[in-house]
UniProtKB/TrEMBL annotation:
Gene3D superfamilies: 1.50.10.10. It comes from Guyanagaster necrorhizus. Residues 1-18 form the signal peptide. It is an enzyme of class 3 (hydrolase). Its EC number is 3.2.1.28. It catalyses: alpha,alpha-trehalose + H2O = alpha-D-glucose + beta-D-glucose. This is Trehalase. One of its GO terms (biological process) is trehalose catabolic process. Residues 28-48 are annotated as: Disordered. GO terms for molecular function: alpha,alpha-trehalase activity. Residues 31-42 have a biased composition (Low complexity). InterPro entries: 6-hairpin_glycosidase_sf, 6hp_glycosidase-like_sf, Glyco_hydro_37. Keywords: Glycosidase, Hydrolase, Signal.
Amino acid sequence: MAALKVIVASICFQGILAQSSSETTVSTAVPSPSAALDSPLPSQVPDPPTQAWCPSEIFCAGPLLQTVNVAALYSDPKTFVDKPTNKPAEDVLFDFENLTSGNVTEGQIVDFVDADFRGEGLELEALTLDNFNEDPPFLANVSDSLLRAWAQTVHGYWTQLIRTTNSSVLCSGTACESSLIPLNHTFVVPGGRFREQYYWDSFWIVEGLLESQLYDIVNDTLQNFMDELDTIGFIPNGGRIYYLNRSQPPLFIQMLFRYITVTNDTSILTRALPLAEKELDWWQENRTVNVTSPSTNKVHEMARYAVNNTAPRPESYLTDYLTANGPDVSPPLNESQRSSLYAELASGAETGWDYTSRWFSNPAAGNSDLKQLNVRNTIPVDLNSILYRNHIIMEQLYSDNETAAMKHHDKATSVREGILDLSWNSTKMGFYDFNIASGTQNHVFSAASYYPVWSGITPVEILRSAEDAFKYFAPLNLVLKRYNGTFPSTFLDTSLQWDFPNTWAPHQYIILQALRALPSHIADVTLFALSSNQSSFNLLPADQLGISESQLPSQTLLSGVNATNLGHQADINTLNGTVLNGGNTTIYEGWSQTLQRELANRYFASAFCSWHATGGEIPGILPRLSDAELNVTQSVNNTGNMFEKFSSLDIDSAGRGGEYTVQAGFGWTNGVVLWIASVYGDILATPNCPALLANTA
Ligand SMILES: *[C@@H]1O[C@H](CO)[C@@H](O)[C@H](O)[C@H]1NC(C)=O
Ligand SMILES: *[C@@H]1O[C@H](CO)[C@@H](O)[C@H](O)[C@H]1NC(C)=O
Ligand SMILES: *[C@@H]1O[C@H](CO)[C@@H](O)[C@H](O)[C@H]1NC(C)=O
Ligand SMILES: *[C@@H]1O[C@H](CO)[C@@H](O)[C@H](O)[C@H]1NC(C)=O
Ligand SMILES: *[C@@H]1O[C@H](CO)[C@@H](O)[C@H](O)[C@H]1NC(C)=O
Ligand SMILES: *[C@@H]1O[C@H](CO)[C@@H](O)[C@H](O)[C@H]1NC(C)=O
Ligand SMILES: *[C@@H]1O[C@H](CO)[C@@H](O)[C@H](O)[C@H]1NC(C)=O
Ligand SMILES: *[C@@H]1O[C@H](CO)[C@@H](O)[C@H](O)[C@H]1NC(C)=O
Ligand SMILES: *[C@@H]1O[C@H](CO)[C@@H](O)[C@H](O)[C@H]1NC(C)=O
Ligand SMILES: *[C@@H]1O[C@H](CO)[C@@H](O)[C@H](O)[C@H]1NC(C)=O
Ligand SMILES: *[C@@H]1O[C@H](CO)[C@@H](O)[C@H](O)[C@H]1NC(C)=O
Ligand SMILES: *[C@@H]1O[C@H](CO)[C@@H](O)[C@H](O)[C@H]1NC(C)=O
């Protein structure tokens, strides 16, 4: 508990705009081991092999990291690896060896960490923005006055998330050691335990920063990624050495393109293009395999996530250690099973979706057994869509170099062919991951189904008619009518954080963009199906979700009972042809505009209501709920949380599950709020927050 409180302090230490950057607040989580201080440490399994990619004897897998982890000092294993030492590494290792030459107690580990390590994350400091525009132009697009004021509040949160490296406390030479990869430019952190620059989060952060006209911060973010490409050869998951064996969904080129499109600053390309090539080469050489299509027998070069790793992830050491060696692992894993599991866990983290039944060999509701991860055998439809779009963008950026442009054009064409051949299912009207072990499409339907159309790959079956295009989006219609929140990662409730009921900002953005990518003769059409009283489940193509209607999770009601999950009565949120918290119907709206309006409003409802339910207020406009009314179970600091994830079932709350406590801040959530405010501002209506809004009325 103490640890959680301190993590909180680090997110909100700079609430006011005009605060001096010299004021650094160092957070130090207080160790709170569950074992008594005089008890001996639990026995350990042998240390995993040294990881060649990870250069520290303190922060990478080894005797010290494993021993400190089994002592379980903090609720989050990431806390320890983010603490720089306060003396040279060899002295820390000496202290550790002296300590462990005898039988060591819990209390001795607490004393050792207190004596030899400093506050987690102290090398990063908040930065004052000199020219922060409190009223950027996009706010004028929001017609609802409450939501405009709220969007402005969210815009103001950048000032709490912008970081710079405090070079005065960096370890220099051998004086001390730290896991931080010091970046030379400013960046935005997601928030909470995510106190470094992250790779794929930054795409949605950049979308928001561009709306906020914080162009310098976007340039800085891109410069950091380019520095990493220069010095490391690829973009790691995040700015810590323990991320050096893996990347994340490769969105650098897309951030670059958005930056140039908005700012017209093409001067960045001189440096960026060769480094973008370098990144694509890395994915090509290290993450690409040949896959034979069962339907056409053609061979396609496709990318997958695959990390070389045979040890627990340092930032999740105890979690992975227990997944592989815990008391419930029966029979115990052998050496090769254990190594393979560690590679799967790291590969799952590289996907960005850590974790989901989407990567399981035997996906099913209720199954959260990470030993079934099958990431390296999966050809992810979202990863390949991202790479397709990267090549299309590169083709455009090489406007004055036809040879280079053609090279990317050809590569894009072949990736597109591969996606359509392996992942498109024209019977089910959806995209699915492809399994190279079984040579078949997977059955788990997920939000990744919308990446191809977002990226510009629209199958002919979707382009046939509005009715056919609607079938592809029919799961979205079902979610809007049947559930209270936004689009879930999957429809399987497993307790993993990238499964039902959790919903994530990036997916809502991708789905909205996929709807926007449809040609107008398909999109701007009125469809009877949308306003009819027909069950939203019956509008789905057979087997599209891979589960029956009765297997769909049911919507919980405030009364504690569940809505029915069968038939059209299950569509509890349909009101006079529109959906609850979906905004107001406008005349001559095509079906695609209807779904966009509803999803954009739902996203606002979810982000706004959970923020208000955790103590958010806007002085003079929206009063704070009383302490008794707050959603205290998930509130991080009772001042209004922007959560990292939401729930499809309860828009007053954050999502749940996962490996760590729910995080607030939060980079991509805020980015998507600002983007939606800018693009859909004129059709956003004040949300109707269940129960809590009624209390304030
Ligand atoms: C080694 O540890 C013992 C206690 O376990 C301590 O008394 C001694 O000072 C340590 N030696 C050094 C050189 O730190
Ligand atoms: C360590 O603990 C074990 C089991 O409790 C005991 O047999 C052994 O003598 C102890 N060793 C030392 C050096 O205290
Ligand atoms: C972007 O950042 C680089 C590196 O700091 C700098 O040289 C360049 O001038 C910046 N570009 C703009 C448009 O500010
Ligand atoms: C930051 O700049 C320093 C000094 O120029 C350089 O040594 C270091 O490699 C740079 N960092 C990165 C990530 O490129
Ligand atoms: C970029 O160029 C476009 C079209 O020339 C213009 O409308 C826009 O205002 C420019 N953006 C900036 C930030 O200067
Ligand atoms: C592939 O990964 C290896 C090992 O990390 C690295 O040495 C190599 O440069 C990478 N290939 C490319 C093209 O970046
Ligand atoms: C993974 O490790 C193996 C064995 O160490 C090596 O041969 C291979 O090149 C590595 N692959 C990557 C992608 O780094
Ligand atoms: C795929 O097969 C082709 C043709 O044999 C070959 O040129 C290419 O290098 C292979 N690609 C990969 C990633 O193995
Ligand atoms: C075009 O790009 C290629 C890299 O694909 C490069 O080798 C070549 O020098 C470029 N040509 C010109 C005229 O810039
Ligand atoms: C499409 O899905 C159906 C039903 O699951 C399946 O039988 C068929 O093989 C799939 N098509 C492809 C191309 O995998
Ligand atoms: C109600 O629905 C929730 C969410 O789907 C589920 O966890 C719960 O078990 C259901 N309760 C009943 C009584 O069906
Ligand atoms: C979901 O929304 C319905 C209104 O359509 C409401 O009756 C129900 O209580 C809500 N459930 C929750 C958990 O907020």
